[in-house]
Each structure stands twice: as structure tokens, then as C-alpha cells.
Amino acid sequence: MPRRLLIVDDHAGFRRSAGHHLNRHGWDVVGHAADGASALAEVARLTPDVVLLDVNLPDRSGLAVARELRRDWPEVAVVVISTHGREDYAEIAAASGARGFLSKVDLSGPALDRVLRV
What we know:
This protein is of the alpha/beta class. It has helices at residues 12-24, 36-46, 62-72, 86-95, 109-117, and strands at residues 4-8, 28-33, 50-54, 77-82, 100-103. It is built from five helices and five strands, in the order E-H-E-H-E-H-E-H-E-H.
């Protein structure tokens, strides 16, 4: 089971909160990024197992970043997150090559584990 996680979201408070929560549930949060360009650089530098990736980033779509990650680092699992519900993004996230989708409201260690087992 992959455990090294990079969190990509433009809200610092969310990154801190999610990181703290996921650390408590056995995830090793190895880094954070606030935009797509930083996400790609951090994946190259940190080689995480999983990238938790917001749909809306300030410099580009998180879905475009997911496609780049799948192309350049196919071994990295991407899980797309959003404040919107599953019905809004689940199919689009899957088309980007992401392993799954989680609403930020539903984000937890066990929920992330379930998405990655699928």
C-alpha cells in the first residue's frame, strides 16, 4: 500500500489540515504544492506514491496536471479532490487518468485508502 503523499491545493489552511489529519491515519505527507507547476516539480523531487490533487489550481486545471503526472510518472497514483461532489467530477477525474475522486468534505485516511484499493 502506498503511503508517501504530496498534497496539491492552493489553500494553505486546507493543506495543513489535510496533512495533519492524514499523518494521524498512517500517511507520510512528504510535501505540499500550491499550484500545478510546483506540483510537477515536487513530484520530480520527492517521488511520492500518491498525489492528492485539487481540481482548481491558480495556474492550470488540476485535471490537466493529472494527465501530465500520468504521462510522466505513471507509477504515481493521483487522487483528485474538490469542494464539489462526486457527481460533478468523478467521471472527468477518471478520464484524466486519476485513480479516483474524493470530495474535500469526505477526505479521510480510510476514504483515501478505499479509493486507492479500487
